[in-house]
Each structure stands twice: as C-alpha cells, then as structure tokens.
From TrEMBL:
The keyword Transmembrane applies. Residues 338-363 are annotated as: Disordered. This is Uncharacterized protein. Residues 352-363 have a biased composition (Acidic residues). The lineage of its organism: Eukaryota, Sar, Stramenopiles, Ochrophyta, Bacillariophyta. It comes from Odontella aurita. It comes from the Eukaryota. The keyword Chloroplast does not apply.
Length: 363
C-alpha cells in the first residue's frame, strides 16, 4: 500500500511538471515548432514569427492598419485631384490646393511602398517594427496634419465652402480619417517596439487627463475655425454677415480661447506634477461646461457660424461633450470622497462607543 501511494504521488508530480513545462513554453515561445527556434514577441520588437509554410515573411501587427490607411489615402487623393481648380485668381489659394494634391499623392506613394514591403520576405525585415517604420509614421503624421488644415480651410475651395459647410464629403472625412489613422499607427508602433503604452500612461498619469487633452484639441479647432470665419465675413468693410452672426462668431472664439487656456493649464500641471488642485479642476470644468452649453447653442443654431456641417459644428459639440464628462467626473470624485469621509467618521464613532462599553464593563 505504501509503495502504491508513493507511485501515485510520483505520477502526480510528473504530470504537474509536464503541465508547468508546457505553460512555460507557451509563455516564452509563441512561435511555430517546425524545426525552427522560437522567439518571444517581447524579444522580437513586437514582430510575429514567420509562418509555418516557410515563406520567411515577418507579419506586422499593423499590416491591417496600413491597408486601411492606404484606402483612405486613395479616396483623399482622387477627391483632391477632382476638386482642385487648375487656374485660380488667388495665387495663395492655388498654392494651397497644389500642396493638398502633392501631400495626398506623396502619402499614398509612401503607404503603398510600406504595404508592398510587408508582402515580401526580403523587404519585410527592413520595415516591420524598425526605425524606418517609425520615421515613416512621423512623416505621415506631419503630412496629414498639414493636409487636414489646408483641406478644412473654407477659403481654399477644397472640402469646405465659404460658409464652413462641407461640400466635398470624401475629401473632408477621409482626410480626417487618414490623420487619425496615422496617429493610431504611430501609437501602435510605440507600444509594440518601445513598449510605450501611450493610452495607459495617460490614464495612469492622473485622473481625467484624457478628457482635458480632448478638450484642448477640440477648443483649438473651435478657436481657429471661428477666427477664420470672423476674419472673412465680419472683419471686413462692408460685413458679409449680420451683426448677430458676427457676435456669435466672436462668442465662439472666446469660448474656444477659454477652453484652450484652461485645459492647457490643467494638462501642464498634471504632466509636471502628476496632479492638479482638485478645487481648481472642478471650478474650471464647471465654468467651461456652462460656457460651452451656451456656445454650442448659439454657434450651431440656424443663425450661427457653426450651423453648416464642418469643423466648427463637430468640434463645438466635441468641446461640450468633453466638458460634460469632466464636470461629471469631478462631481463623482467629490461625492465619493464625501461618502468615504462619512463612512470613516461613522466607523470612528463605532470604535469609540465600543471602547467606552468595554471600559464600563471592566469597571
């Protein structure tokens, strides 16, 4: 009986050791066991090992993103080529239109080369999770940020008309989609190659930093778009628009300026010190929410400058939504702290009463 128990224990230990070995291989390997040495993804800069067919091609976790990015660039380029005017009276407008076309063509060529390099086993080694891919990401972010600025300017005659309304949906929306894609690919590259989790770092840095950063971006666009409209329609003699329209445009500029300065202050404090005074944050968030509530009502109404669908319309609502989430988050933190304080006070009273009862009983 003792011998059988010993054998059973040895078999159980051996099975446990086998299971542990398999788990260790699974954690370290993630490769293919076809006579090849497996390499952990963390040691391979985020690259997925070659497939079992023996092609030797390294697949990238961003290959699908690059394909989607290429589709956006194709649509943007074709729309820009169709929209641009060959002969324009204003030389500055003509140069901006030429830049938009050149930028979209350059972006498409770069993205197409990157996609083709992903498909070849000989060239994928030079592009997947390398410094070259990182440099290309930086170049594309710069190109698309400038393209979005030129395309969204109503006086370049590309995607937005003089009233700020979108007149070429493909060029407008796909230019923004390309810009967002370049940001997403850059963040994915930093996370997989340098193990920099940008979103995680922002969340862990301080509470509500994401909301403040979003409010900063939206307020900048609102301020710039409203300023362009005011310069073109109100800051001229005679004015092209009514006084009511110009007053609402000026109010949009003021609300965007306040949101930009306030969010820039809070973001700077959170980045520098990992925190910001809660009272300052709460007061600013409530103040910006109230101002944005009036701003979005006046700006996007039928007599406002943001009535047509365009940058001012979308980002006015974006600023309002961001300020709403900021205010609600501050309120939740305040009520949570009040509940915790009340619970701590109640617990303290209970402990004090228990100590008094024990002393009375001992007496």
């Amino acid at each position: 009986k003792t011998f059988l128990n010993k054998r059973t224990t040895e078999k159980r230990d051996q099975q446990q050791e086998n299971i542990s070995s398999v788990l260790r291989l699974n954690d370290r390997g993630r490769g293919y066991f076809c006579g090849k040495t497996t390499t952990p993804m963390s040691m391979n800069n985020g690259m997925v090992p070659a497939d079992a067919a023996g092609e030797g091609r390294i697949s990238s976790p961003r290959f699908t993103l690059w394909l989607i990015f290429m589709v956006f660039s194709i649509v943007s380029m074709s729309s820009a080529l169709e929209t641009v005017e060959r002969n324009h009276e204003d030389a500055k407008v003509m140069n901006n239109q030429k830049y938009a076309v050149a930028s979209t063509i350059t972006s498409l060529i770069i993205i197409a080369i990157v996609v083709l390099m992903h498909l070849s086993s000989a060239t994928s080694l030079f592009i997947v999770s390398t410094k070259l891919e990182g440099l290309i990401c930086i170049i594309l972010v710069g190109l698309h940020s400038a393209t979005v600025a030129v395309v969204s300017d109503p006086y370049n005659g590309l995607a937005v008309d003089e009233t700020g309304a979108v007149m070429n949906g493909n060029l407008y929306y796909f230019s923004w989609a390309g810009f967002i894609s370049s940001i997403i690919i850059s963040v994915s590259f930093l996370r997989s190659v340098y193990h920099v989790d940008v979103a995680g770092e922002i969340r862990s840095r301080s509470a509500r930093l994401t909301y403040w950063a979003g409010l900063l971006a939206a307020s900048l666009v609102v301020m710039g778009a409203a300023a362009n409209i005011y310069d073109a329609d109100c800051n001229v003699e005679p004015m092209y628009q009514t006084q009511k329209f110009c007053n609402r445009t000026a109010f949009a500029i003021a609300s965007g300026c306040l949101g930009t300065v306030s969010s820039l202050l809070v973001v700077g404090l959170k980045i520098a010190t990992a925190s910001a005074p809660f009272k300052l944050e709460a007061v600013l968030s409530v103040l910006i929410f109230i101002i944005n509530a009036f701003a979005v009502a006046y700006t996007t109404s039928s007599y406002g400058p943001g009535a047509p669908l365009g940058n001012l319309y979308y980002f006015s609502w974006g600023s309002f939504v961001a300020s709403f989430f900021l205010s609600s988050s501050c309120y939740e933190e305040y009520t949570g702290a009040s509940r915790d304080e009340a619970e701590a006070s109640r617990r303290k009273d209970e402990l004090f009463n228990e100590e008094e009862e024990e002393e009375t009983g001992d007496f």
